[in-house]
Amino acid sequence: MSATALRGGCHCGNLVVDLVLTQPAASYAPRCCDCSFCRKHGAAWLSDARGSLRVVQRDAAAVLRYRQGSGQADCLACARCAVLVLVTCEIEGRLYAAVNARVLDGEPGFASAQSASPQRLVPDDKRSRWQQLWFADVHIEAVDPLA
């Protein structure tokens, strides 16, 4: 099967994501976390443990990091346009991440979103789940906004 490359980001372009999925888009069902934070932001999380994710921060000072729930993961949103773009967690020295599928350009053709309830898991089980599901090949690059 061929890889699926997708691009997206926040509304103002401060945070840009480029991701590669290992399967066709239709084989992915974004996960809608039922916690109050994700519900209020309308997030639907997408990840591929065998895929890759590259994030460009055009102005790192304009990126908000917010920890909620068990306080283990960082939710990254743009401070300029307020779009929630991704969530990251460092586990055993490795960065894992999932992307809000609603920030991707175009209509990728994903399967219908499914509900997820990670808040019902204990912290160790959350980290284990994230290691299994989230992107493990993650690169975040800060770009000089004056360049």
From TrEMBL:
It comes from the Bacteria. Keywords: Metal-binding, Zinc. Gene3D superfamilies: 2.170.150.70. Residues 6-125 form the CENP-V/GFA domain. InterPro entries: CENP-V-like, CENP-V/GFA, Mss4-like_sf. Belongs to the Gfa family. This is Aldehyde-activating protein. It comes from Lysobacter koreensis.
